[in-house]
Amino acid sequence: xxxxxxxxxxxxxxxxxxxxxxxxxxxxxxxxxxxxxxxxxxxxxxxxxxxxxxxxxxxxxxxxxxxxxxxxxxxxxxxxxxxxxxxxxxxxxxxxxxxxxxxxxxxxxxxxxxxxxxxxxxxxxxxxxxxxxxxxxxxxxxxxxxxxxxxxxxxxxxxxxxxxxxxxxxxxxxxxxxxxxxxxxxxxxxxxxxxxxxxxxxxxxxxxxxxxxxxxxxxxxxxxxxxxxxxxxxxxxxxxxxxxxxxxxxxxxxxxxxxxxxxxxxxxxxxxxxxxxxxxxxxxxxxxxxxxxxxxxxxxxxxxxxxxxxxxxxxxxxxxxx
Length: 322
Fold this sequence. Notes:
Helix 6 (125-137) crosses helix 7 (145-154), helix 12 (224-246) runs antiparallel to helix 15 and helix 15 packs antiparallel against helix 16 (307-321). By secondary structure, the chain is α/β, with parallel strands linked by helices. 24% of the residues are buried. It has helices at 12-29, 44-52, 68-72, 78-84, 107-115, 125-137, 145-154, 159-172, 180-186, 191-203, 207-219, 224-246, 251-258, 262-272, 277-295, 307-321; strands at 4-8, 36-39, 61-66, 92-97, 117-120, 142-143, 177-178. It folds into 3 domains: 4-120, Rossmann fold (3-Layer(aba) Sandwich); 125-175; 191-321, Zinc Finger, Delta Prime, domain 3 (Up-down Bundle).
């Protein structure tokens, strides 16, 4: 009987749902059991002791341990520990959870595949769209597939946000079909997401969409100085991605090197294809000039007086596209 399980992948919501199901099933069989252990901060020796401890007044122990590979694969005792897992007692069920991205050829996957069950919870955009549509359908709501795709993207393909916003749309919209206007009114996209969307539109030269996004940010009360700096940060990231791609790195290696989430890197890689390096450098220079004007007092800006900065940013977008 297999009693070692490894869950990893981008879809952390599904992983946590799976963990909750395991806990619920175990506690239903053994209520208030002392044989359930959830470990997040541990030493390898301590985990091994837990694994080898016999169950108390029960048939099994369930041990859920987080980030064995992420936190310990560089430890001197790591290889010896994973070898010891071959002798895990039949009474112990060990569930290992990796919260960070790990490569499909990582040593832990190779080793545990031989002695246990390894499950990759991949985060598919199509699956996220299905979960959005399914949640809306619970209240007899529908959404256009193109609009659903756009909503999933604008929520950074985050399963938790998608579920929460779907519930909100189900409760606070009137008709059966969710409209774009309702999404704009009800769904709260953070400034980072809006700037990412703005850069997407900039990369594909969709002038009006860029202007609309900027105006939406301004009207929603966002600090335009923060928006200016977020756009500058985005361009710095694109320049870094451009450089790392030129070095021959793939998306996974870029994510690791730049310390970014893989799904963010995927989007940046798509954006950077539409920007020559020279163009990005010119855009950065223009933004630095705007920033300098504000600091020198040549351009007036306050939360109550956005007009001049808003005009400069709109002009920047128009010149960036042409």
